[in-house]
Design a protein that fits this description.
By secondary structure, the protein is of the alpha+beta class. Helices cover 22% and strands 21% of the residues.
């Protein structure tokens, strides 16, 4: 989803001492399921932020019920504290292209299906494979009438937002068309980002057949967001300074000196 992410969370002080913390964390702890990070959560009325810190499980998980409480769970590298055996997190490699011979494999098809489910469960309108810890150049995206209905009509018009069916693009190549840009909020924790209004994306579909998308408006923004994930660029790397905020305070005025939202002349 535009999704997912280099986010910093402010946690309240834990209500117990360091000794109690280690005891609670490492004794009789029920393993927590591996959390899947959300991607682009545009339009999510309720959303949770879940992060994968290592190869085994999550350390801190938002409960996803609009409360600020966090659950401490076991993780491979975290368990090494107080133990003689040292364990290290896996290094996430840069996204690599998928070979044409591998596209039809059960492994790649399973990855694609998992990505679609994660995106829809978030809910979001786009997701890149690195967002769920898979270093492959695969993106999925879709925007539905239901998602769009959550946004105000004037916002939908300004963003030039229209529904489109599910797209799976393997090894996407992004190309801007024209120099016109627009500034809008995007991401789960929102920030204003300037994007091109028209782009062209070529690649392969889930069956390995060539695909080409000429996109404009909001679809073009989603494609740029997800393709940049494959290069290790997040929306917070491109955001306009002093525009980072939560969904609840999007209507607050922008800071002095920030450019206006909408298409640039």
């Amino acid at each position: 989803m535009e999704g997912i992410q280099r986010l910093t969370h402010r946690l309240s002080p834990l209500p117990f001492t360091a000794g109690e913390f280690l005891k609670k964390a490492f004794t009789k702890t029920t393993p927590w399921p591996r959390a899947k990070p959300v991607g682009y959560c545009q339009n999510a009325q309720k959303y949770s932020l879940r992060f994968v810190f290592g190869s085994n499980s999550t350390v801190l998980c938002n409960r996803g019920d609009n409360r600020s409480s966090f659950v401490i769970a076991r993780a491979g590298w975290f368990q090494s504290l107080g133990e003689k055996k040292q364990m290290w997190p896996e290094i996430v490699k840069a996204a690599q292209e998928v070979s044409s011979e591998e596209i039809g494999s059960d492994r790649i098809q399973k990855i694609i299906e998992d990505m679609i489910q994660v995106m829809r469960k978030a809910p979001g309108v786009g997701l890149a494979a690195p967002q769920i810890g898979i270093p492959l150049k695969i993106i999925v995206l879709e925007d539905t009438k239901k998602y769009i209905s959550y946004a105000p009509k004037n916002e939908i018009k300004a963003q030039d937002r229209r529904p489109f069916d599910l797209l799976v693009i393997i090894n996407p190549k992004l190309k801007q068309k024209g120099n016109k840009t627009a500034l809008f909020f995007e991401g789960c924790l929102r920030a204003v980002v300037e994007r091109y209004l028209q782009v062209e994306v070529t690649g392969l579909d889930k069956d390995g057949k060539p695909i080409k998308i000429d996109a404009s408006g909001w679809q073009a923004r989603i494609l740029q967001h997800e393709c940049h994930h494959l290069d290790g660029t997040l929306y917070v790397d491109k955001m306009v300074p002093r525009t980072f905020r939560t969904v609840e305070n999007l209507d607050l005025p922008l800071a002095t000196g920030c450019p206006k939202l909408g298409a640039r002349d």
